[in-house]
Structure formats: C-alpha cells, structure tokens
C-alpha cells in the first residue's frame, strides 16, 4: 500500500506553490532563481513518476544487441550500422526518448 499523496504529487504541489504564489511576488534574479527551482522540482517529480518506464525502455533497447551490453555498447553498435533495420530496437529507442522528453521537457499545460 502506498501513502497518498505520493512523493511526486507532493513535489508537484510544492512546484505549483513556488511558481504561482511565491515567484510572482519576486523580481529580477530572485524570480529567475525561483523559476529555475520550480522547473527542477517538476523534473524530479516527473522522473519519480516515469523514470522506471524510461529505464525499462532503454534496457529493452540495450538488450536487443546483447543482454550484458551497456548503453555505450548500444551507442557503438548503432554507430557501426549493424542494427539499422531492427524495428524492435527502433521502437524501444523511440519509447525511451519520448518518455525522457516527457520528463525533461513536458508539453505546456493544455496541450
């Protein structure tokens, strides 16, 4: 059983308070710093929530070349061109990339 709210949800509330209530009362560098901290909090919250999915997709991609491979091995194999027609590898890389993008740079609210 997981306690409610989750850590990710608590971080999201903290980010919202910082962004909507505290930052607007600031000017100049303090406002910029508050926005930067709010952005970092959002990234961490999304990583807590979706990080396992990204790691799983990347692990699936790496395992396509060798179960004991590393991401560096995967990068070298891709550069060597030996997996250009591997649709499963492509799908796993797309999934990992889309999940990472959602964590690091989510779409604006309402999109």
TrEMBL record:
Residue span, DUF6285 domain: 24-106
Top-rank lineage group of the source organism: Bacteria
One Pfam family cited in the UniProt record for this chain: DUF6285
Database matches in InterPro entries: DUF6285
Protein name, per record: DUF6285 domain-containing protein
Organism: Methylobacterium planeticum
């Amino acid at each position: 059983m997981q306690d409610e709210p989750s850590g990710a949800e608590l971080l999201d509330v903290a980010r919202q308070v910082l962004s909507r209530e505290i930052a607007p009362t600031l000017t100049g560098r303090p406002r910029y710093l508050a926005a930067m901290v709010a952005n970092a909090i959002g990234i961490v919250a999304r990583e807590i929530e979706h990080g396992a999915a990204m790691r799983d997709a990347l692990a699936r991609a790496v395992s396509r070349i060798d179960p004991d491979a590393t991401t560096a091995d995967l990068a070298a194999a891709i550069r060597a061109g030996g997996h250009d027609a591997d649709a499963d590898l492509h799908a796993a890389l797309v999934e990992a990339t889309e999940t990472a993008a959602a964590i690091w740079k989510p779409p604006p609210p309402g999109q």
